[in-house]
Structures are given as structure tokens and as C-alpha cells.
Amino acid sequence: MLRGSLSQMNVIDLMQSLEMGRKSCLLTLTKDDEKCDVYFSEGQVVHAVYGTLKGDAAVFKVLRWMGGNFQLNFEGKTTETSTRLNTQGLLMEGLRLLDESNRDAGESAEEEDVSSTPELTAAVSRSAIRLPAGNAPIWEAPPWLRPSRRKFQSGSPGNRGG
User: Fold this and answer.
1) Sign of the CA dihedral with 120 first, then 126, 132, and 138 last
2) Maximum CA pair distance of the chain?
3) How far apart are CA 138 and CA 84, in angstroms?
4) Which of 10, 45, 77, 138 has the smallest number of Cβ neighbours within 10 A?
5) Number of domains in the chain
6) Which of these, 70, 83, 91, lies nearest to 20 by C-alpha position?
């Protein structure tokens, strides 16, 4: 058995290491009084249990853990299969969900901050960006950034040939 702290090696790093090493084992994650068992076969997550959650949902729940402990039991095996995605798919989807959750939490916090201050709400309303109608560009590059339309004539410094 191998034990460690998730503050030293997080859940994502652990799962990637087990996948790359094509390990078959039971990864037990604990934090306070919570526990998740994740079974690997040849580096692929085949079954996971977190309380009443099973499969992909159980894995997604623990990906956000930054603290807690882990234990690897290389004798741990299961005949159950509850996950639909492979290990990489679980990590990618879990990170997407985590990112979405963090973004939504940030937006709702910003909305709460703005709506709780009437002066700020009025200021935001007054400074709303108005987009041009039709096909007018929103932004146009200044002349010095636009591609040159000058043609080089013979004898000009830009012409290398005759």
C-alpha cells in the first residue's frame, strides 16, 4: 500500500500517473469524513463510488479536492463497471465542469455585487457598450497596423530585382 496527502499530489496528478503507468489498483480518497473509492484496470477508471454517487459523477465530485489523503492498494480489484468515459475523458470532462462551475460562481458573485449597489448598477447601465448596426466593424485597426497597399516600382528601395 502507498499513502500520501492530496496537498502533495492532487487527484488529477494521481489519476494521470496511474493511467500513464497502466496500473490496476484501488485508489481511496478521503477528506474529513468523506470517502471515494476509484478502481483502475490497466490505467483506466472502471468503477468509482462516492457515497450514493457511482461512476463518472463520483469521479467528478472529488476532482476539486485540494486537501485530504489518498491510499493506493495494488491488490484492490472489482468486477463492477460504472464509468462510461475513459480516464482521460473523465479528467477532461471533470475539468470542464469545474471550470464552468467556477465561471458561473464568479459571474453570480459579480451580478450580486453590482445589483447590491444601486449607484454601481446605474453606472454600469450608463456605460453599456453599444455595438454598431449592420456590418460596420466594431474596431478598426489604426493606419500604421494595416497592410501596406503601395506597390514597389523598379529603383525603389523595396525592389531587389531589375
Assistant:
1) negative
2) 82
3) 44
4) 138
5) 1
6) 91
Q: Which of 56, 64, 44 is nearest to 93 (CA)?
A: 56
How far is Cα 31 from Cα 78, in angstroms, rounded to an integer? 23
Contact of 50 with 61, CB cutoff 8 Å? yes
Q: Which residues are CB-contacts of 54 (< 8 A; sequence separation ≥ 6)?
A: 47, 48, 82
Helices (H) and strands (E) in the chain, counts: 4, 6
Is residue 92 within a helix (H) or strand (E), and if so which, with residue range?
Answer: helix 87-115
Kindly report, residue by residue over 11-51, the tens digit of the pLDDT: 999 999 999 999 999 999 999 999 999 999 999 999 999 99
Predicted pLDDT at 98: 81
Q: Looking at the domain assignment, is residue 24 inside a domain? A: yes
Which pTM does this prediction carry? Answer: 0.64
